[in-house]
Design a protein that fits this description.
Strand order of the largest sheet: 1-5-4
Oligomer: single chain
Number of strands: 5
Structural class: alpha+beta
Strand content: 15-25%
Order of helices and strands: HEEEHEE
Helix content: 10-25%
Number of helices: 2
Number of domains: 1
Shape: globular
Largest sheet: 3 strands, antiparallel
Distance between the termini: 40 Å
Length: 85
């Protein structure tokens, strides 16, 4: 089963967060599936390459101002990078 990340959306935290694990407790029915390696780049649609994210975390995982890594327990850690422009 794909596990959702476990952090409720919190706009103030998102603006100020520099690093942290996503601990969203959104029910799986409210999440969106995400390919860690994009399907368009040969990423497979399987449990090893998929994660369920709440809409807020799904936007953040595509935000170029953040990097992410999958932790051994399946959670996603986001790190805010340097702002450009």
């Amino acid at each position: 089963m794909i596990q959702p990340s476990r952090r409720p959306p919190d706009r103030e935290t998102d603006r100020n967060e520099t690093q942290g694990e996503s601990d969203c407790d959104a029910p799986a029915a409210w999440t969106e599936a995400h390919h860690l390696k994009p399907w368009s780049e040969g990423g497979r649609t399987n449990l090893a390459n998929m994660v369920l994210l709440c809409p807020s975390d799904h936007r953040r995982i595509h935000d170029p101002n953040y990097t992410h890594e999958r932790l051994p327990d399946g959670r996603i850690r986001f790190t805010r990078g340097a702002q450009t422009g």
